[in-house]
Design goal:
- The protein has helices at about 30-45, 60-65, 100-120, 140-150, 155, 165-175, 180-185, 210-225, and strands at about 15-20, 75-85, 85-95, 130-135.
- With about 230 residues, the chain is of the alpha+beta class.
- The chain has a single domain, classed as Transposase IS200-like (Alpha-Beta Plaits, 2-Layer Sandwich), CATH 3.30.70.1290.
- The chain has a 4-stranded antiparallel sheet.
- Mean pLDDT is about 85; it is low at about 1-5.
Length: about 230
């Protein structure tokens, strides 16, 4: 009998880099409404109380995050996130025992149901369960944060992780990408501000520049090489 490997449980009050991609590297976000549905789920799923979007009169992202429903105690602190056409990244702190697992299960299950319904398909949408890498020191944290936030640069500068990058263009490209929390992280007001927490800023004496973030993200890519 084959024994299935089990992932170690995430530790409460610790940070994790969590990520997943579409099965067979397929595109999981095809339209703006798909990205916005996933972002809305990040908001509605982050609570101990069951909360669904099926009974909501208004389903647009702005209306959902503006609601003041009691969702119970938050499960995770979402430091940063980034949604890409084929994959997703988060940096999360677990706030209650089992919080990350519960949060991720709620988000991915609900989004898969939504996507399959709109696409007349069945079966898994993402490649198995999500990955969770424990962030065990400040240096690692300060490398993975920009790595997550700067993922969209690869859509415009595919070789930036190898050192070929235009800093001016990258800053403009990141500012125009609506499906990551880079604006919230740098202190700008955006929809991401309603979804992410602020405790991550306590780890910085000052927030890094885009150039510094690109350097840190490149270091992370070379040293840690996420397997996704």
């Amino acid at each position: 009998m084959r024994v299935m490997a089990t992932r170690p449980a995430c530790v409460t009050d610790e940070w994790y880099h969590c990520y997943n991609r579409g099965v067979d590297k397929r595109i999981v976000f095809r339209h703006t409404r798909d990205y916005e549905r996933f972002l809305a789920l990040l908001d509605t799923s982050n609570g101990s109380e069951t909360d669904t979007m099926s009974s909501r009169f208004k389903l647009d992202l702005q209306s959902i995050v503006a609601e003041k429903d009691d969702r119970g105690d938050p499960l995770v602190d979402i430091a940063v996130y980034c949604l890409m056409p084929t994959h997703v990244h988060f940096v999360l702190k677990q706030l209650v025992d089992g919080g990350i697992a519960k949060f991720m299960q709620k988000v991915f299950t609900a989004y898969t149901m939504y996507f399959n319904s709109r696409s007349s398909r069945t079966g898994a949408l993402f490649a198995g369960t999500y990955k969770a890498k424990h962030i065990d020191d400040d240096r690692y944290l300060k490398c993975v944060i920009p790595y997550v936030l700067l993922n969209p640069v690869e859509l415009f500068q595919p070789k930036w992780k190898d050192g070929i990058r235009d800093f001016v263009a990258a800053k403009k490209q990141l500012s125009g990408y609506p499906f990551s929390s880079v604006a919230s992280f740098t202190g700008e007001e955006s929809i991401a501000t309603k979804i992410t927490g602020t405790s991550i800023r306590d780890y910085y004496d000052r927030l890094p520049t885009i150039k510094e973030m690109l350097q840190d993200a490149t270091e992370y890519h070379k040293e840690y090489s996420p397997d996704y």
